[in-house]
Structures
1.
Amino acid sequence: MGEVGNRESKAKSLKSVPGQRHPGLDTPVQYLKGVGPKRAAQLAKVGVTTVGELLFLVPRRYVDRSRTLPIARLRVGDEVTVFGRVMASSERRTRTFKRLVSCMVGDESGTIEAVWFNRPDLAGRFRPGQELMISGKVTAYRTKQFVNPTFEVLDRARELPGANAIIPVYPLTEGLSVWAVRRMVRTALDKYLEQVPETMSRELLEHYGFPDIRRTLETIHFPRDVRAAERARNRLVYEELFYLELVLALRRRRNTLARKGSRLVETGVLTARFREKLPFQFTRGQEKVLAEILADMASDRCMNRLLQGDVGSGKTVVALYAMLVACENRTQAAMMAPTEILACQHFAGWSPVLREIGVEARLLTGSTKARERRELFAGLASGKVQMIFGTHALIEEKVSFDRLGLVVVDEQHRFGVMQRAALLNKGRNPDFLVMTATPIPRTLTLTVYGDLDTSILAEKPAGRVPVVTRIVTEDKRATVYEYFEKRIASGEQAFFVCPLIEESEKLELASAVRTYEDVRAAFPRRRVGLVHGRMRSEERQEQMELLRQKKLDILVSTTVIEVGVDIPDATMMLIEHPERFGLAQLHQLRGRIGRSGKRSVCVLMIQPESVEAMERLSYFASTTDGFALAEKDAELRGPGQILGTRQHGLPDLRIADPFTDREMLARARRDAFRMIELDPYLREPRHELVRKTLAARYAGREELLRVG
Ligand code: ADP
Ligand code: MG
């Protein structure tokens, strides 16, 4: 029994404790003196199961007790930490029946109220005389207040002897006080610090004046002053980012520079005719990114390029052009999309033109029939089929190509790294183009996409009128419907987007059906359709086709329409419960309208209780700039959500924040890329430690170093 437990904890600590494995550091934290099963369970919630993980539990910040403000000097808007005693506490309900716990806190200078909404766990928690450390933003509601602040109950009796005025703030753990964490960390440091191996090259440590690993760990938990703590934290931040960038540098080398691809040079045999058939001219932006793509394809290195462009900026046609160039060179081209709707749309939209210019293009999805499938597989294997559009079905084992020259992945964030790799492996070093309509803040392109070259399609085709976004409350619903009705009468179309219900597909379906019924009742003279994720894809397809042919006036939908759907006459959208969506998602949804020259409106139907989401929603209403929204999203949600490093096969960032630690990121990137440029296999003795550390962290996952 003990053995199994051990092995498990080893596997875990490999992921998160930097450096080579060390038996002592893999000791389950529960075996540490003073840590019983209860504490161990609390620690597990913040990802700490071993002694090593406890040592690397980095405080989020530090409070210097000698420098906190007296309560009387607090001003509204300040983000602060203060110390004070509980003078009184109470529980009550607000007028809107929310439960509220309130606590009056004071020091020698004055008092402030702290209130928490919907925190039944805090009922009865506070007693007069208790000393609190409270952190939050000062607001005012009758008196000065903290709303939902974080806090610690201080307990002098349990304070460590010799601990000084700097108090580390650890990631929140329910029921685990700073003091308890500090005690456990102290024990772990005393017993195990000697066993922690160095993981950074001495050269780099010296260059930046960073402390060695043991000093670093001692300091982050028990700093002499805030500056020392910052330096120690910076070392860990730098190290984390350095290894991330090192993986990217290796990937880039292997995927781009060290691999010989085919030279695919535009001949014009197909592309010239394609241009003639297009109903529009390429924009300058499209020509520019196309030139970048074609230059990569024409060189003998492998293309690994990310094409970013806002929704509706016209990326697909650019990708298609590149695919034609691949076909001109007697190679095949594949485009993979995340949903069947999207794959079908690409195919349906472009196959007539492709047929006219004599390209054999086909579609492969989960619902392609067995007979057609067999024939299609044969055509791909023989090279007769030149171009293929499809979904995940493309990466099935049975699919093989004669000579795959170019792989395009649309809306790539929907795919995992392994899926992308699986498609690439169907060719011999094909060129690779990934597209995303979710604009990515620059910092992120340096991290998760740091091994790709980037093209940005900045402008949209001329004649587009920006969508007007309105935030509307429930009581105005009838007015909105009247307005929609009028525009529908003149031939325009509308989307109704159902509330997102993440927890349950079943509930989501129920709510979609309800919305559908409501909309039908509200628009009795209109033809209303419904699409949702539980439908068979042919049914979904059929509804989209009806909409496109204007046999439907309104389409009620869940987020399945989020990505890429292109219906030019849809000019209205109503989003129910917009507060449940992220900014990026809302932006994608709104991108479904405003695709013609007509003025389009997007209505966000908010419920009175969604006031908390107002900042986000009004920002959304104020701009249609996808890049600005992406930055805001990152700021509001924190980078972790957006990064999804693990999905990219990259190490998780546990300490660094690529937004606030931008400068460190830039340095780490420069250093890592330079190291790989000078010593691609890390063979030099001075890089040995780095090589070993990297190998230990990626033990058993070496394939992730290879794929993009
Ligand atoms: P996205 O970048 O969101 O994938 P699409 O490629 O779907 O955008 O393009 C959106 C619409 O704009 C399509 O209907 C497409 O045919 C059209 N389009 C693309 N390029 C141009 C252009 N240069 N001028 C006018 N319309 C264009
Ligand atoms: Mg697209």
Note: Confidence is low (pLDDT under 50) at residues 1-20.
2.
Amino acid sequence: MRKKVIAGNWKMNMLPNETINFIDEFSKLVKNSENEIILCVPFIDLFYALLHVQGTNIKIGAQNMHWEEKGAFTGEVSGNMLKSIGVEYVIIGHSERRAYFGETDEIVNKKIKSALKYGLKPIVCIGETLEQREDGKAVEIIKAQIQFALKDLDKKMMDDVIIAYEPIWAIGTGKTATSEDANNTIKAIREEISKIYGQNVAQRVIIQYGGSVKSTNSHELFSMSDIDGGLVGGASLNAEEFSKIANYK
Ligand code: PEP
């Protein structure tokens, strides 16, 4: 039985004092949750977040990293740096990074390999645009993204990879894929992973849904056979709202 993994993506929100207040409130609300709960916070909040989740069931993730270990890459942060302060997860290839910062499938693949090398668990985002969906190309696009993203990864590495299926048209728009639709696409992703790594890996890999997840739709989405939790943007910024999502039973 796969565990539900519920991750918040704060994007470029929350100052350190807000992070500390959030964790103080949120940790009390989710202390009995049986799900894996992750907060992916801005770089400047990581250290504060890591200190404040000590003794709780909350894990901390970053939202991006560079693929090189160190060097002349002004403004960048490496996987090695993240690991050195105790970060466990890192979002890779979010659609906002692909759209606004020119992240290609090749860069995404390099970042995933580097994350794994430094012992971080990548949350790998894939998803189709509205145009691709309307052209009936969603599954084809997603399969190609999976093949690119996972290039050169072996079966063992797949134990530490989480996939987040996020239809781009559903991110921050209030539009959600229907639970059946999201489940069917995630099944197609599992099938693709099965073709590459076999059934065992495909049945073990955690695949989340992301795109306007809220406490009012999370239960239905997470109850579907192949949806193993969610990557949650806007609704993860409010402790009470996010706790309702994270407490899924
Ligand atoms: C996201 O940031 O990955 C996301 C899905 O955002 P939202 O939940 O706000 O749509």
Note: Residues 5-246 form a domain with the TIM Barrel fold (CATH 3.20.20.70).
3.
Amino acid sequence: MAIKALIFDVDGTLAETEELHRRAFNETFAEYGLGWHWDRALYGELLKTTGGKERMLAHIRNNAPATRPAETEIPAIHRRKTARYVELVAEGALELRPGIGELIEDARARGVRLAVATTTNLPNVEALCRACFGQPAGALFEVICAGDQVKAKKPAPDVYELALAHLGLSARDCVALEDSHNGLLSAKGAGLRCIVSPGPYTQRQDFSLADAVARCFCEISTLKAVEKILNPATKEEHHGR
Ligand code: XBP
Ligand code: MG
């Protein structure tokens, strides 16, 4: 099945962003005098809840921290966290995961359409694209579905379904690129083929539903390599000849 579009997750897929998100959260918590500090272990647990606002609520509900802002204050705290994250990205704190830039370039050259389906919010996508690709997000990705544009975040399929609706394509014509179990569930829920390349926070997760798993996106830095990893039989045939 020819691939008409690639749909990219952002956090953990375009770049390893979670340590920077964690830093922006912790700096914001300090500013607000919450006395919260999310260390790596705690953050790894909290990542089971996608979305920054939802993650803060999960922290309040599951960990009952001594200082608790009213739930109505969460959006304002999260806006401050986003502003800090955007600053850090603009300062050059991120780089693309190996293979991502090459894959995007090759797909564009072959007329394959490009989209984003992410839980993070739009300013973060924009900042990452400007800092890491030197281009506005809209110049790279024809469709960008992000953050609160959908009611239910990953692992619900909504954000991928929205991306498909905007592309006007059926799921069988597209491939999702992901780094996490929640992202994989979201893509599969929307009926997509999904290639996963896990990162530091996700490497021990279950990817048994994935159509393929790559240790590094550099293994699939061309469209041909994407087709091959999705169809290993074709690869063996070629090798056999
Ligand atoms: C990533 C996330 C995001 C970021 C924070 O999930 O869960 O919440 O950690 O982003 P995925 P915001 O890669 O599966 O989309 O703070 O902007 O919500
Ligand atoms: Mg991700």
Note: The chain has two domains: 5-16+95-238, 18-90.
4.
Amino acid sequence: MDAWTGHEVPKLPGNATPPELYDSSRRGVFPTTSGPAATMYVCGITPYDATHLGHAATMITFDLVQRLWRDAGIDVTYVQNVTDIDDPLLERANRDGEDWIVLAMRETALFREDMEALRMIPPAHYVGAVESIPAIAAHVRELIAGGAAYTLDDGTGDVYFSIAATPSFGYESNLTRPEMLTLSAERGGDPERPGKRDPLDPLLWRGARDGEPAWDGGDLGPGRPGWHIECATIALGLLGNRIDVQGGGNDLLYPHHECSAAHAERLTGESPFATHYVHAGMIGLDGEKMSKSKGNLVFVSRLRGDGVDPMAIRLGLLTGHYRSDRQWTDETLKSGEQRLARWRAAAEAPTGPSGEALLAAVREALHHDLDAPRAIAIVDTWVEAALTATGTDPEAPKLMSRTVDALLGIRL
Ligand code: 5CA
Ligand code: ZN
């Protein structure tokens, strides 16, 4: 499917190096790439509701990764998916008496609009699960043929992946087995289902059921894909056997990214699937994770409809470090709006302190695991000085504006 339309990103003077990022599997901060190119796969939305601020925060995180790579002259290939067929989508469509395809198309269109408004650099490939079904089914058949997957003998036609098929299962999330069992039950898995070889084995293919959409799976019979194999197949098809960054919110640490990696590694025989597994913190409201199932959502489109400047939303979300779980409050938005106004005023000032020094400091802050809060504090200091006519560099306001546009995605 088509992604959204991008904006021009200003080219900045001087040199930058690719960022260092925290990798959940190695539990430390490591350089992302040493070569001229980099690949990134980010887990996108399940389109049964509008884009909320949690989705936006996660997408902004990986937008910054792409911006920093580009600033360092890296040739970036970025892929994002849309889970346009899965249980939650069908449940919502049934609840509302709506066609699931219409629901998915509408919410995906709204997501694209929100991404454009938030000045997200579009992915090179924006791919739906539905359009990937033939490739996914082929992978499931290959896993069965290789002894890594099995069909349940209860007549459903459901196929499961055997986690015993990858010796390193668990390396990505670093969780204990009891923790995995708990999270599996909470996040779409079915550890209690009888007949599985291991309670943690994830679903690869769900055999057709009455009243549910199904696709031809060849020898698998009709059905629809499981969630983790969707992302493994899309990433392998477009980015090759090893990707630099596998991204998403930290709710995907387990089972999603662990199982996607296990599927891919079993299919390719190469490990690890991703050099970095990067996880953004959860955005919450009133002390709870913002999620469609809890219904405590602040929608990007609702704020836009209320006349909020998307740049203030973006700035508000960037004031917390990407890895920390954090709350969205009215204050977050207010401070984003006030800061945006001050930055805009300073960008119009006749002079300011050195623009080159500002650029170097912002680059340095972001280089270390995307320290956007520190980058924002550095810009704030520069802005205060410019607004009190402390600096003498007449080129600095323009360079400040280009810096925050290119590196933070904030258009002044
Ligand atoms: N389609 C799957 C991924 S393949 C999915 O998780 N969809 S989603 O709509 O639930 O979430 C889309 C992206 O936003 C994922 O990367 C998810 O980790 C992230 N996300 C979801 N809720 C939040 C939240 N409250 N805060 C931050 N990120 C979130
Ligand atoms: Zn995914």
Note: The mean pLDDT is 96.
